[in-house]
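JOB MANIFEST
job_type = single_chain_structure
chain_count = 1
residues = 231
[input]
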Amino acid sequence: ASLLVAGVVWSARLPLFPLQEVVFQNELREVRRGEVERSLAGRLRGNFFSVNLDTLRQSLEELPWVRHAEVRRQWPGRIEISIEEHVPVAFWGQATGQLVNAYGEVFSAVMSVPPAAPMPLLVGPVGMAQEMLAYFQQAEELLAPLGRWPKALNVSPRQALQIRLDDGMVVELGRQQTKAPVRQRLERFVEYYPSVLTAARQRPSVVDMRYPNGFALRVAAAPVIESKGKP
């Protein structure tokens, strides 16, 4: 048995099973050919049987836009690679160069082309990206009937939520509570949004929904107009 195993290992190391090609199974959007070549350079060692697939996979997953990679052998001399790229849905942090993907995972990368649609900004404690993305998607759904869009979502160190709309209005939602969930407060804002605009003499800059049975409005200070003419 030992001789048989040794014979198989010896045969696999012979130059009888060379690697002939590396094939990518899916089209890549952000990952560049040059990056892949540099990543795999020096790692395609050995033949069809001896090349280390885990090493190839790990080197590919170190690339900024690669979320997950699968590497497999295809007889007689092909290596097939499937790459799942990050799909950015939001910017993360203030000028950090980081993005949030569709799974709520934060990653560092630079987009080669501007996004087709405006992406929101999420700012909050490390480790809350997935939860914050869920809050944003919830707000996006509830605000849609108003024709408004959440442009930014901020979570304070004490986990208080604040949403900035596309028209510049800020909605203070406070912390998540069992008796008064954030969704309930946001639903109340959507319900009273038309009356908020009607009641205020000018569009409020901040709407505070942290009150249990009401809300507070804050309007921007009116600019002071100086007259240089004669009295």
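[summary]
The chain is about 25% helix and 25% strand.
Residues 1-12, 223-231 have pLDDT under 50 and may be disordered.
exit_status = 0
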